[in-house]
């Protein structure tokens, strides 16, 4: 029997293969020269005067996921997200959106991609001070040529969606920093993009406001399921928001995986140092922490789903005073006891099933 369309893997929203962005004289020579491409950042600059901001990066962004790109200042994360829509022109590599070659797009197709298919939320709110909140939100629709009545109606709808109901007639100067960033988010949502791109949008906000905005992103994603690419240097933000996290250093991918994979199995000492202070029990699930079930455990008692966080399992075990069964699709696949929970908190992994293996994480980056 021939394979059906239903079994075929979905086309990634963004597919990136061997992407380079090199700044400097004769930058195009670097990706194609094995010797130059293999030099460290300092050696490359000394020898050629070039800086490789993005070095041979490959990954896919799946439809409906929150894909976080994380790294310290100078890691290449902001350059990378700007390459996706060619706000910065890549030097080499393959870049596709929904299977279409972005690097081959003419000005018309590229303009359509930036105005209709993607929208970016920046750290700098970039609001127009002489316009009201609603008119700021509707600005992208005005650029698209939508009538005033239609765009104001859409703008009002988006203002309410991001929790600014009743503030549509105010000017940006009358808003707090968090409210201004909500306007920026509403402006991006107004054009109904397939993908929302966030470039460290909350880094200038106070901690409490920043947390509120993170909650807003989580809420919007839960309600709409829109694909999001989120750039941040903050690990706690990455772990909180991301379905998968791509961690960069010196323009290269260090590790790509789920928050649980990265915390439980860091690929190297650099990642290990990054996640050292993360409360593991708030990231790792009982699927990874459980031990095999034994006859003595029986088939009765409280149950947990495999995706339950260890922090929640600790509370459940403390409340019941008993071991808990991990049940998937009606079948007991493991048991959680005090020792399992303590191992996670202490950083002792009992996982030997290959899930989250750092070698596999690196393979994912090239898939």
Automatic annotation (TrEMBL):
Residues 39-275 form the ABC transporter domain. It comes from the Bacteria. SUPFAM superfamilies: P-loop containing nucleoside triphosphate hydrolases (SSF52540). The keyword Transport applies. One of its GO terms (biological process) is glycine betaine transport. GO terms for molecular function: ATP binding; ATP hydrolysis activity. The keyword ATP-binding applies. Keywords: ATP-binding, CBS domain, Nucleotide-binding, Transport. GO terms for cellular component: membrane. Belongs to the ABC transporter superfamily. This is Glycine/betaine ABC transporter ATP-binding protein. It comes from Streptomyces abyssalis.
